[in-house]
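Thread title: Can someone regenerate the structure for this chain?

I was given the following input by a collaborator and told the matching structure tokens would be attached. They weren't. Posting the sequence so someone can regenerate them.
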Amino acid sequence: MPPINFNDVVEAADRIRGVAHHTPTLTSKTFDALTGAQLFFKCENLQRMGAFKFRGAYNRVALAAQLLDIPAVIVMPRDAPEAKLNATRGYGAEVVLYERSEENRMAIAQAIARERGGTIVPPYDDERIAAGAGTAALELTHDAGPLDAIVAPCGGGGLLAGTCIAAHGVDPDIDLWGVEPAAGNDVQQSLAKNERVLIDVPKTIADGLQTQLVGEITFPILQAHAKGVVTVSDDELVEAMKLLFERMKLVVEPSGAAGFAAVLHERFPVKGRRIGIIISGGNVDPEKYAQFLSSGA
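Best answer:
Regenerated them for you:
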């Protein structure tokens, strides 16, 4: 039995209804003409906290702690965008910073949990986190109608795993694609080798996709459901961000633009197809964002 099933996603949708935003699914005639496809953008950059992660967090009661009056300590990389750090603190959470390349986030979290008697909530490798993330794809399939494919960014695999379960629960023939930065293709390598592959911290502007190892829970879901995982360069991410801003007036972080970048550069069959694109988030520092728009990566 898979760790989560379609009913888990449906139950998660019921649980977060009225708390998480039902984000819009937008279209663009310009982008349809540019790609030769019908594109449907699921705008999780407009979700509470600016990213899809609110869905899984509320389903697992983590970053939703403020709403439930539960203290939360969030272990975040020191190089995370200031916008993400400020937003996390703004929701009342205590932030503990660590160095990606030198320290182990899980070890730090375990030490804090032991000291304070807390419960660890992983960022992606958790059944309820993945099921909550899958509610975005569930809404997308409802709002867009029949789709030939859905593409989503892939870090540790929580969003893509939830998307797989949700989409194939609606239509088992939908192709599901994940997108990683070219510098950090651990999931692509893992699927090719049929085992989880550990890589060094990727050097990429997509901070949300700088994971080193696909989740133990999420990996078998991707093996069973994903059509494949493709990669895009940092320059291609910036190109996608610029187009989304110029044509759709959407502020999207580098990680969130990964799916659109993959469609633009036809990393998988695109033309003549109805494709859902999950824009995973929009948390990017204003100064850095301006730099991306004006001078590239």
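The two ends are 43 Å apart (CA to CA).
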